[in-house]
Input
Amino acid sequence: MKQIHLPGIDLNLLVIFDALFTEGHVTRAAKRLGLTQPAVSHALGRLRHLFDDPLFIRSPKGMIPTAAATDMAAAIRTVLDQVEVVLGTERSFDPSVSTRRFAIGLSDYSAFVLLPQLSVRITSEAPGVSLLVRHTNVTIGHSMLAAGDVELIAGVFPPPPSYLREEMLYEDDFVCAGRLENPGLADTLDLDRYLSLRHLQVSMRGEPHGLVDQVLEKIGKQRSIALTAGHFLMAPLLVQDTDLIATEPRRLFERWQDKISLRLLRPPLDIPSFRVVQAWHARHDADEGHAWLRRMIGSISETV
Output
């Protein structure tokens, strides 16, 4: 690991890095910080020397962050948030005037359910606030929080370690979904008919068997999985264009009913519901801006 002499480093450089990453333009970053353009350009040179990386590449559309800059941006934002909390500037967080950027982790399922309303609410109540959304899942969510890659995650995760906090947002159950013209679907769906159909399985890790198959195995049954997809949002489109059926979270399909022709039926087996939670690191407990974001996501979850 590169040795850093912290007392010799101007931590204001991190503020300038954050502004450059957010604005993608030296002039806009300078205006945001109340500095001159040459001062920001000079600071960028010092940042490049400090991190031994170009960080931002000029293009006709502005400054494009390098892979290294993208990787460290969330961690630097977290450091600045913590400094703001310590100094008290965020204790009286005012969403109407804040220009804070929150880095959050969402799975494609939780993004589909929560992100549209969250974006609308932020635009209305906190027009200067921005979101950096990173993909997460059940395997990496907690480690992303621990590393500071994100400040908050929402989705399905295992019980958290002691240094993380967790709040349940809602429970979701499962439905069977297929196209209206699917000849194998009727108004009711018994187990024999269900097992005779060809099934779509969604697995983020590419596993051909999931929770539904575990439930079937307990009663000595097995379904025919014709296709395993790695993204939840593919499921509605795939069952619309084929005779496959999918047994997946209810909220994944209900919003599509007005857009595509889907039939939703109750599964002919007892599949347990699951908890969708938001989780964060304990270091954000006293952060009023973070608490505001958590409250907003919590209120949105009551309406989805």
